[in-house]
Design goal:
- This protein is mainly alpha-helical.
- The protein folds into 3 domains: 96 residues, no CATH class; 201 residues, no CATH class; 136 residues, no CATH class.
- This is Glycosyltransferase RgtA/B/C/D-like domain-containing protein.
- It comes from Candidatus Roizmanbacteria bacterium RIFCSPLOWO2_01_FULL_35_13.
- Keywords: Membrane, Transmembrane, Transmembrane helix.
Length: 597
């Protein structure tokens, strides 16, 4: 049995096949999910370009030059990712299945690449590589990066390219071939063109080079990294800045604090440098602990210790206890775990260096560096959204990159725990303790994994898919003038609205684009000028969306459209069912018009 397992670990093809089966098996419910939020807006930008013979080129120009200043201030400049989304819209449209398939395929590939990376870092222990790949494949912490399938090009793909960059860089030393350095730099630029957080490779790769033999001259490596960094910084910051100045777009409207996470008012901080420094210290520490411990596990621990740490007498005030349970207690656990991992890593590194086992210290240094450095780009978010970053955990998608580092360290942690327990409890077989520790981790991990997967793929996303299908059964195509009116029972977790995490009218213009596309003028600016409901007419086509009978009646009486243009539905949230109420609402509107006359 042991020989067969060792053969499996040395057969890369079998390991790759294993990760493909594993990922598609555990993530199989993703195919029942649907689009989420940001991609709906991206569809409105890209779908009109799919009918333009120069659409591919226009996307590159638009997101690298014309819109670069605004993107530099608020979002991203990632031309390759934008081109990929355009191609997805061109070939797949709003068919969710291909997006899910690509996202899962890339995640399976990434799990295998993590396996290969750890194998290169510590070739004498293939079991470490397997455990690390397994940790990465089934980590519930970074799950949303995979399940938000339509945005794989800015979450999953950048990690694929980053891993390839690191692996080829290591192969250059292993095979003493300079061409692999150039291939590594190529993948570095491809990674940067899909997500700016890949900039940490400019530090990770030199760290790896530091541990390797001096195969290549230091001057060569310095030149290639400095030149690459300058080229990227010019593209990412200097050119957008020059364009911004030449276009007189440097002045921004004064913003006020909305007291929400999307507030952009920096004046809320009386000492901004101090806040930036605070985040630069705490974000990496939090990133370490939260990369290993899922939020559900943290909360379960806090639930267990709360009665002990913050006891309350019968009939007493529970405010302090609740504050610990839902607030400070979570931070306590996260920081304790973070500090424990940091202590373990540093002590292990020092121990290996003292023993002159540099090859053992190298993977821990690289893993810890990946986690810590991945947190620093998040500090810069303060300049766009000052109130972001105060939750216990970061956005799940931001953990996909750091999970590489966690996967590298994870096998060392498991074996470290096994050795510690064996030594202190006088257990002869350390392997047995390691196996038990791994089983405990696996059981908890799969439990939390399934909870997260249900939340991200089954709770609300399928509802939107069902609503779209029912709506198209009632109304297969949009007539020249189409006015939607929706009522709900208000029992949805999203409130009295349809189950979309975005503008509902915007989503409706997208889902009908394949059979009856609206004119491009509907997509070159916010629908209804940013209002949640209204009516828009251009180029012989009209589209309206209402949830208020008053607004519907007022626009009807003004002559913007007629009663026969109205299509009305009532949404039962618990049953996820649309009821066609068109004739009832049309009758009400006709009576309203008669009464008004």
């Amino acid at each position: 049995m042991k020989e067969k397992f060792n053969y499996f670990l040395t057969n890369n093809k079998l390991v790759f096949l294993f990760f493909i089966v594993l990922v598609f098996l555990f993530y199989r419910t993703l195919f029942q999910s649907y689009f989420e939020a940001d991609e709906w807006y991206a569809f409105t930008l890209n779908l009109p370009l799919t009918h333009d013979p120069w659409g591919f080129l226009k996307v590159l120009i638009k997101y690298s030059t014309i819109d670069a200043p605004s993107l530099a201030q608020l979002q991203h400049i990632v031309p390759l990712a934008e081109e990929i989304f355009f191609l997805n819209a061109l070939f797949f449209g709003t068919n969710f299945v291909p997006y899910a398939f690509i996202s899962l395929s890339l995640h399976a590939l990434n799990s295998f690449l993590v396996f290969m990376l750890i194998k290169l870092l510590i070739s004498r222990r293939p079991i470490f590589a397997f455990l690390g790949g397994l940790f990465f494949a089934l980590s519930p912490v970074q799950m949303h990066a995979v399940t938000w399938a339509a945005t794989y090009q800015t979450s999953v793909l950048p990690v694929t390219l980053s891993l390839l960059s690191i692996i080829f860089f290591m192969l250059a030393y292993l095979r003493n071939k300079k061409k692999f350095i150039y291939i590594s730099v190529l993948f570095l630029f491809l990674a940067l063109s899909t997500k700016e957080t890949s900039i940490i490779l400019f530090i990770i790769l030199p760290i790896i080079a530091f541990f390797e033999k001096r195969t290549f001259p230091s001057s060569f490596l310095v030149k290639i990294f400095v030149a690459s960094l300058i080229v990227y910084l010019v593209f990412r910051f200097l050119l957008p800045g020059i364009y911004s100045l030449s276009s007189l777009k440097t002045q921004q409207a004064k913003v006020s604090d909305t007291h929400t996470v999307v507030s952009r008012d920096l004046s809320i901080y009386t000492n901004l440098p101090r806040e930036v420094l605070f985040r630069a210290i705490t974000f990496p520490v939090r990133m370490i602990g939260t990369s290993f411990l899922p939020r559900q596990t943290v909360f379960s621990i806090v639930q267990f210790i709360t009665p002990i740490v913050s006891p309350v007498d019968p009939g007493g005030n529970t405010i302090g206890q609740l504050a610990f349970l839902y607030g400070s207690g979570n931070f306590v656990i996260i920081y304790l775990v973070s500090l424990a991992v940091i202590f373990f890593c540093l002590s292990s590194i020092i121990r290996f260096i003292k023993r002159k086992q540099i090859s053992e210290a190298k993977p821990i240094v690289v893993g810890l560096a990946i986690i810590i450095l991945s947190a620093f780009p998040l500090v810069a978010i303060i300049f766009s959204f000052p109130r972001w970053g105060y939750d216990f955990y970061f956005d799940s998608r931001y953990y996909y990159g750091p999970s590489i580092g966690a996967a590298i360290i994870f096998p060392f942690l498991i074996f470290g725990i096994g050795e510690f327990v064996s030594k202190n409890f006088y257990i002869r077989k350390t392997s047995t303790v390691v196996l038990i520790a791994f089983i405990f981790w696996l059981i908890n991990n799969i439990y939390v994994f399934n909870l997260g997967l249900k939340e991200f793929t089954q709770n609300y996303r399928p509802d939107a898919r069902v609503v779209v299908r029912q709506l198209k059964e009632y109304l297969p195509k949009l007539p020249p003038k189409t006015v939607f009116y929706f009522e709900t029972d208000g029992k949805s977790a999203l409130g009295p609205r349809l189950p979309f995490f975005t503008s509902v009218p915007q989503a409706l213009t997208v889902v009908y684009y394949d059979v009856s596309p609206l004119p491009d003028s509907f997509f070159d600016k916010p629908l209804f000028l940013g209002n949640p409901e209204g009516y828009q007419y251009a180029d012989g086509r009209g589209f309206g969306f209402y949830t208020s009978k008053k607004e519907l009646a007022e626009d009807l009486s003004s002559g913007l459209f007629s009663g026969e243009n109205i299509h009305s539905f009532y949404y039962y949230a618990e049953k996820v069912k649309l009821k066609n109420t068109t004739w009832e609402i049309r009758g009400e509107m006709e009576n309203f018009l008669k009464t008004e006359k």
